[in-house]
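Exercise 7. Given the encoded structure of a 310-residue chain, write a plausible sequence.
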């Protein structure tokens, strides 16, 4: 039986043991992102610059994401004695104790997080630099990110001084972290950030102005995010989530606007191509694989004036 009895304060203390990020560090990172946006500074898109801004505000909540065995990281810690009974967890712990962390440079929670990443789920983010690369290619005025997640999209839009960023997020536990993130970003940028904490399926997109969509909706059954609906099959998820959500957000997009989605190939082939035809562009995510060998690709469509959707 899985139990979870950590308070939010305890979770915050644990997350800071893993990522102890100073405010000074994120100030420096934001300055670098802005410089990259203004001057095309040569920063590799594999760089982690900007990640600490995201983690400073939302990492504690990210560790609530449920991975394999229907367990999140905090529950993994609490139930570690049960997980020690699994042979591969025993082997991993032994390897860290005798080889990888024999000098004890990594603390207890950092070790467990690395083991959790390998054995259960790594809970990845889209890096701000990836968002920036896509934004810069298409030069949008108003962005819709209807599965906003951990904040990388808002950071990137602000670094590039894009007029407007609209984020839709179902996880209401992220509302307070986003308030802190937006306060921080407002010190550096005039980007109007509008975060809406509702189910993306319940939004009237005709009331929003956006000429660009870029987002990464949940993949089939890889991870369970807080407050997200659970579906019993891929078919049900297609019919009740992907099809209506893609259709609504595409219909609200301005004519001539760009619709870019980071999602698994199976969703593209079974849903998106049926709705919008073949994408006009496909980009590598600059990171080879997600868990379960899902290719990380970004698929792009352009909304034609005469053709809302197929």
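Solution.
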């Amino acid at each position: 039986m899985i139990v979870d009895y950590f308070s939010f304060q305890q979770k915050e203390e644990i997350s800071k043991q893993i990522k102890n990020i100073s405010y000074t560090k994120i100030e420096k990172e934001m300055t670098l992102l802005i410089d990259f946006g203004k001057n095309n500074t040569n920063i590799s898109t594999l760089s982690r610059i900007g990640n600490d801004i995201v983690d400073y505000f939302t990492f504690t909540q990210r560790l609530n994401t449920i991975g394999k065995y229907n367990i999140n990281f905090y529950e993994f810690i609490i139930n570690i004695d049960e997980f020690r009974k699994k042979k591969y967890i025993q082997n991993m712990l032994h390897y860290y104790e005798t080889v990888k962390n024999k000098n004890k440079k990594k603390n207890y929670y950092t070790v467990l997080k690395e083991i959790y990443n390998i054995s259960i789920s790594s809970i990845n983010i889209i890096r701000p630099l990836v968002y920036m690369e896509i934004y810069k290619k298409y030069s949008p005025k108003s962005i819709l990110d209807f599965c906003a997640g951990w904040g990388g999209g808002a950071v990137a839009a602000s670094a590039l001084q894009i007029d407007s960023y609209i984020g839709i997020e179902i996880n209401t536990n992220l509302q307070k972290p986003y308030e802190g993130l937006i306060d921080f970003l407002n010190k550096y940028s005039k980007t109007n950030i509008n975060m809406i904490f509702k189910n993306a399926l319940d939004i009237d997109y005709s009331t929003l102005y956006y000429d660009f969509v870029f987002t990464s909706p949940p993949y089939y059954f890889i991870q369970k995010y807080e407050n997200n609906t659970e579906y019993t099959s891929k078919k049900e998820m297609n019919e009740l989530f992907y099809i209506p959500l893609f259709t609504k957000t595409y219909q609200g997009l301005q004519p001539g606007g760009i619709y870019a989605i980071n999602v698994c190939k199976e969703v593209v082939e079974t849903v998106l191509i049926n709705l919008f035809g073949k994408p006009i562009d496909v980009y590598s995510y600059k990171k080879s694989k997600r868990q379960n060998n899902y290719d990380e690709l970004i698929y792009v469509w352009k909304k034609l004036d005469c053709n809302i959707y197929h």
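Remark. The beta strands are 142-145, 164-168, 192-196, 212-215, 258-262, 281-289, 295-302. Students should compare their own answers with the one above.
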